[in-house]
Please model this.
Amino acid sequence: MVQKGSTVKINYTLTVDGQVVDSSTGREPLAYVQGSGQIIPGLEEQVQGMKTGDKKKLTVTPEKGYGPINPQAQQKIPRQKFQGQKDLKVGSVVQGEMGDRQFQAVIAGINDKEVTLDLNHPLAGKTLQFDIEVVDVQPPHS
Model:
């Protein structure tokens, strides 16, 4: 049974607004340690107590998933910082660096002077639907 410290393997399909956005189909199951914070809290809480072979449909709210949308996570960057990039479109994903950290952002707006980047996680503010199957549970190491 899944409990704190168990090593758990699950197969899953994640849908948002009826669209599949991630799945372990065709890949190895997702492996994590229960209670370690390696997966989103809402999924971890609902897997607690399940057994190998159990299947479940789960709903995870934004607060227990990737969080609500943070309006302060939008930044305006001077357009000249994107010189040489002709394919800038609202909705496109761009990558960059801030100090020694790399990030991904979605272009939220473009005008002649600046590009507005949204640094929220792409699934922030979304209600997540999971279909999961517990494939394996190893007891906590003592």
